[in-house]
Structure formats: structure tokens, C-alpha cells
Amino acid sequence: MSQDIVASVSDLSLDNAEPEVRRSAKSKRPTRAFHSFAGNAAQASPTTNMYAFQANYQTPKMNDNAGVFTPKNFNGSKLASPAPMASPGPFGMPMSPAPVGSPRLYGADYGNPNAAPDSTSSYIIPSHRWEEQNLFLTKAYDAVRDVVPPLPTTQYYASDNGICDPRLMQLSMNMIPSDQHIRSATKLPLGVTIQPFATTIPNEVPSSGEINGGEQQVQGSAEGPMRCKRCRCYINPKFQFTYDSKAVCNICQIKQQAPYDYSSAIGPNGQRTDAEIRPELSRGAVDFIVPMTYNRLPEKATRPLHYVFLIDVSTLANENGSSLAVVDGIRSSIDYIIENQPKCKVAIIAYDNKLKFFNLKPELETAQEYDVNELDDVFLPFYQGLFVNPSESKHVIDDTLNRLSSFITNDKYYHVPQVCFGSAVQAAELALETFTEGEGGKIICSLNSLPTVGNGNLYLRKDNAHLHHIKCDNDFYKKLTSDLMTKYIAIDLFVTSGGFVDMANVGHPTLATHGSLKYYPHFVQQNDEFKLVNDMVSTIANTVGYQGILKLRCSTGLAVDMYYNEATGYSDRDVTLPILTKDTTIDVLLKYQEKLKSGTSMSFQAALLYTDVHGVRKVRSLNSSALVSSNVREIFKRVNQNSVLRIMIKDVIRTLGDCDFPKIRKSIDNKLVDILTQYRGLVSGNSSSQLVLPESLKTLPSYMLSFQKQDLMVPNQQSTRGNDRMYDLIRYQSMSPAELLYKLYPQIVPLHVLLEEQDLSFYDANDKLLQVEKSSLEEVSVRNMHANFTDGGCYLIFNGDRIFLWFNPHTNRLLIQDLLGIDPDFPINQITLFGGVLPETSTEINGKVLNLIKYWGQMVNKTTLPVIPLRPNIDQYYSYVMGHILCEDKSINMVESGDNYILSLHRQIQEKIKKEDYIKISNKSQNDDIHQKFVQF
Ligand SMILES: [Zn+2]
């Protein structure tokens, strides 16, 4: 069964229809499966099935309990497999009688990152995702032994033996080119991706220091953690201590006296004997609790986070039901804060053509509203009771929210269509500045229409294709943004209408302050309320701190070229992060300052100074390292596609310029051709006529092609600054690596195919690793093409933000009954999923789907993901959504299909190779001073 698909991959066959017709027989066959495919009756005959059942009965099952990770037996250093999949592994877990690296299935290098990169590789994303997940069922990631970190769409256990979990910080190249010339010969960026609060498995970053007189002592006493006297980096496992109490810094190599109270005996191995009890000496990721000298105002105590809820209650927001949904969202958010962030304070302000402040003082019995009509020069009508502890004032908050609901629902006569968005944000800013003395906070704001009264009026009433840029061009919003930045205030914006709101301007403060933007273009209360409430609670639940400043330090020879950060103008200045969430991710481009010595190790330390939501000042220190080499083959083998992809995309965004999208797309193509030509010319050799993708970058072209089809890149004949484009643009700043990959290439999982008992069940006791039997890989890996959708099929689709359940009138009703508990006679067009929740029906398929939803949610840090029906000819959003899901088809803007794209890259590479048009390493002397200007799009 597998030869055909391999043949089609190897030959780059474009016959898309083939693989979906092919079915393999399965052991466990639910009744519904017999009715699924009118055209496939022969393949799905019970006879074949019986045969398969017997054959499979003998197969050793992979989840032998002896090897299952559980919290009890998880110990990173023990679990890390010494030779990834080269042998059956230390756990006695053969995946099946066939060798794991079965050479003809899904590309030759399956499961073995160390295999020679010259073989034909699968560039198919869906297969790659499941294969990699399967690989990490039986091994933990080991930063020392494994050549590249897993993709963000893979769940894995990782140990921290002095190098932090790659989810927290990862390099784009795990082997550092020894000089700029070799780096440029790869055409790849040398950079770092930092997600300081990514959820890791196991999920713990140890603290070093003292909290409120706790037992753990601050090392380095009142001065805070030990730091290098010269480069100011924080103590980390790569500091070397000598017998005479000196320490050598791993970043700048300076030898210095260790503080008197921070000395320790040195063991025979040269390690300090206290390394095991001091996390900063043994772990790559650590939180230092720091003394008051690290506070923004060193003489003042820090505060827990302050939230301001800002609600648009203008006519249109009330009419489409969004303002009511926002009130519900605030109610749920405040409940969450009471439960989980009990020290935080909240304020509530509503606005239309005036500002409505609410006094929430706990002594009050009912809410008091103060209206302010002076919008040009906003002021606070009262002080006491503006910010309150939500638990103490719960009854007043409830009354306020009830009053707002009643105003929205009943007082239609008083509704006004204008919104004073700019003045409202200024009011929230003033409130935070006054109450926190400039310590900062977070504004959560809804907006339903273009601001037309008060400060920050916008006059561009509709989208305009004549403006050839998408930058913020309104002085008020530029000034507002810089004010918010200096006061450490972030703003999350919830846009609840598809009407033009000039997001390039109103969204600019959100973009720069690292807030999150949510957009509900066709807000319908029934469909979107659950999503909005959920998004609002998520933005609070994912908040881990505020008032952050991030700095990356590297060993001598390398330095930060730029942080991809709008607010600092893509410079090398430290990044200010007014708000920090689990998703906050910063990409960094590095530059060479001198030639590096092959064989030496380069250290990287990202230090993030921040205040956690409860008001504790900390420094999160993330440490990693990599060896230097001048061997291009080794360098290519250790390229980390995820970080490369992110930096390529961030670089496109940085240089969007006049929005000439055809030109930008061409430059992306050229970039990919350059990279792959260099690989071909320098590593894989010229002899083969087949396309050879480096194993480490095999799905990069598919992801970059999909990026070219995103809303951001749609040609701008009619539109430059439309909501869709701007929303897409701003999201790239706040998306975590996992969300980005699912957005670029949504994952489609067919539910109508025959699944094994183990398929889509959790492998480990912690419910983190989802497994698919090897024999089912082909079935569950659906490429995102229209031709791969089967009439009568049923698919679960995840785009990083929402889950869609695809079915049509021919879908087996028994399957829908098992899945949703809906009677087979119930009309298909009337099926709804109340509140976006999949009901629990206790059937096998329902259980599998719930597992899948949980798995995806964990990957993108969401406790709930809405499930939305997706039915052709029934759901109005069907075409729009499918247009984004089917990213391998030729787009309506004629961007190439996946297979054709690969073929076209192949042709261009061959041309260049024939002309010897690539950088050769021997040209070295002439090119020594090439500066790393990576992607000049
Ligand atoms: Zn130093």
C-alpha cells in the first residue's frame, strides 16, 4: 500500500486523487465504516477486515507499560535515548515488526535525524507531523544528543541538564557557522527564537531566591543574583569556578572573584559541590527572585497587575450583540481573576460618545456611574473605588455589569452611534498611570466601529488601495503608542465588526505593546459569543507577568543584530514587553563581530526582567549553547526549520514597504531557491536529477508557500489597509510558534476512516503525547487539498485558533450520532454545537476526538477551543474558511499549488546548479566581510 504513495512523492507526481482512494484494511471496524464510501465498497469489505484483524492480533503493541512516561518515572537524563531510533531503543519498544526507519514510507529519513540527508525526503506536512510525534513517544528530547529540536506541533518531554528546553529558547542553527562567509553560503539566518513562558513538559522552571522570607536564600544576598562584572550576564551552569574562588564568565570569558557568600567546594570533576541544590548552576532555565534594586522605581515596592476593562456600548455594538458578549466576557474574566490572580485589581469603563466610569468601592451597595463628556482632555471623575480588589467588590461589580447589560438591552433610546475610542484608551491610560505610579497594567478593550468623536478621530472612512503602505500614519495613535510603552501599559483589542476600523492605526498600540488582537468580522451573538468570552478569559489566563525587559547576550564573536520588534524599530535595543503571556515570542537576528573558532562552544543567555501577575519581581534566565563548525554539511544537518521560518516571515513583515505583493512573493521564492541551491551545490552533490530537500528544512517550502496565500499577502488592487490584512499582520507579532504553524497549514484529521484502538489516544500518563499507529499514518495524514476531501467524509480541522468539524449530507449518520449524540433523522442543516463544545457521548470515536481537541489545546495554550460545524452549502462562512484551509491548492490569486511549487523550485535550482550560480566556500578570501543582511526582501 505504501509503495504507490512513495512513488508519487519521489516522482513528484501531481496525481492528487490517488492516495485518498487507497484504503488499508483495519482491525477495529465500527459499524459506521461500512456505510461511508459509496465508491470504496471493495476496499472496505468485511472479509479484508477480518483478515487484517487476525494479522494484527499478533502484532506487539507499542504501549507496553514498562516504557510509558509517567510523572513518577520521568527523569530527563535517564529517558533521553542515546542514539535516536538507531536501535529499538532502551525501552524495549519496537513500534512494529517492521524496522522503524522503513525506508520507502513517507520519505527515507523517517525517525532518524542523523541519516544521510541525500535521500528523497517527504515534504508533506501532515505526514511529517504524525511521524515526528510518534518519534517522541518513546524518547525524550535531549539537547546534547539530538541534532534539532522537534517542531512546535510536536509534544515531547525534554530534560534540562544546563541547556533550557528548546520551547523556551532555540537557535536557528544548532551548529554555528564559524564565520560570516560560511553563514552566508547557507543563505540561512543565524538567529534565536525566545518564548520565555512556553509550556514545557515537564512544566517547571525552578526559582532561585527568596520570596517573602521563604526558606530559599537569595544567592548573592541583597545585591541579587551573581552576575558577571563585565558583561552583566547572570550566573548559569556554564560559569566555571576555580579552586581559588574565582569564576570565569561563559559569555565574555572574564575571570573574576566570586562573591564571598557564594563560594563552594569544587569536586574532583571541576563542578561545584552545591550545583545540584542551586538550580542556577545546574539548570538552563531559572527564575531569580530579585531584590528591590531591580524594581522600576527602586525605592518602591512592586504591585500586582492592574486590569482596565474598556467596553464599546455604541449603537452598532449593542445591535450585533457584541457589547453584551463583552460584558459576559468581563464577568467570566473577573471570576477567573478572583480565583487565580487574587491580588490583581480591576477597573471598568464603558464608552460611546462619552466615557462612563464605574465606582466599584466595596462599601457601596450598588454601582455608581459617572459620565465624562470632556473628551479632548480626559480626567478621572473620582479616585477611590476606580480600581478594586475584585473579590472584595464582587457584589458591586456584578451590579455594574447587570446595569450595563440592562442599558444595552433596554435603553435603546439612549444608544448613540459614535465611539470615542482614542479618548477611552487615554482615560484607561490615565487611570493606570495614576493608580500604579507608572508601573503599568493591561487594558482589555472592545471596539465595534471607526472612532469618530473625541481624540484620535479617524477620517479614512473606507479601505483605500491608493495608500501603498500599512504603517500607522496617524500622529495621535503614534503618540498614544509611545505613551503606553513608556508607562508599561499593554492593550488587547477585540474588534467585533467587519466594518472598516482602520486597524493600521487603531491596532498600532496593540501591535507595539505586545497585546493581542482578536477580530470577529461577522459577529453573530449565537455563533461568536462563546468564542469571544473564551478569548477574553484566555488572554487573562495566559498572562504571566508585565513590565518586562528582554536582553539576549551571546559569547564574544556574536552579537544581536536586531530584535524583530516594532516598538524599537527592529534595532538591537533591549525589548520592552509591557505584558507577558505564555505566547509571547521574540525572534532575534544575530551578527558576527569576528571569526569564531571551530570546535568551541558559543553560549546564549536571554534574560527577562519582569514582574509576575502577583507583583513579585523576577529575572527569568534562559541559557543555551551550540558548537562552532566550518563544515557546511554538519551545519545544514543541524538547521532548525522553525526558527528559520519565523525569521523569514518576520523579515518579510519588517520590509513590507510599498506592499508590492507580487514582488515580495518573488523574493520569497528566490530566497528558497538560494537556500536549496546552496544545499545542492555544497552538500548533496549535483548528480541526482531528483529534487533533494535538506532533511532539516523539508517542509520549509510548503510553509512559505502557504504564507504567500495568507490574507496579509493578497494583492492590493482594492485594498491595502483592510481589516483582514491588518488583522493578519498584527497577529504574526503575537502568535506562538505552534499557533503560527497551524495557521499556515491547518491540520486535517479524517474521522470516517478506520482507526485502530490506539489511534488518537494518549500514550503517556500525563495525557500529553497523542499517538497514531504506524499502520494508520497514511490514513490520518490528509494533505490540504480539495481533491483530498471525500464526499461523505467527516473531518476535524484545526487552524491554531478554532476547530472545524466538516461533514455533508452524505456523511454516515451513525458516525455523526456516535460523535455528537444526534439522532440520524435530525436534519443535517439544523445541527448546531451549542457553545462551540463537542458533547461527550462515551463512544470510542467521540473519545478520540476529545483527545485530539485536548492535544491541540495544550499545544497552543488554550484550555478550550471552540468546535464549529463546516458544511458545504449550509454554513455561510464555508468558502471563506475552506479557502484558508486548502493551502496546497492553487489560490484564487493564482499562487501556485503545493506540488507545482516544489517542481518550479526544483527547475530553478537545476538552472542555477547548471550555471554554477551559487556561493562556493573556496571563494572565502574575497567575501570575508559580507555582513549578515539575511533576507533583503
Ligand atoms: Zn561576562
TrEMBL record:
Pfam families: Gelsolin, Sec23_BS, Sec23_helical, Sec23_trunk, zf-Sec23_Sec24. Residues 303-538 form the Sec23/Sec24 trunk domain. Residues 640-741 form the Sec23/Sec24 helical domain. Residues 225-262 form the Zinc finger Sec23/Sec24-type domain. Residues 1-32 are annotated as: Disordered. It comes from the Eukaryota. Gene3D superfamilies: beta-sandwich domain of Sec23/24, Sec23/Sec24 helical domain, Severin, von Willebrand factor, type A domain, Zn-finger domain of Sec23/24. This is SED5-binding protein 3. Belongs to the SEC23/SEC24 family. SEC24 subfamily. Keywords: Cytoplasm, Golgi apparatus, Protein transport, Transport. Residues 1-13 have a biased composition (Polar residues). Residues 779-815 form the Gelsolin-like domain.
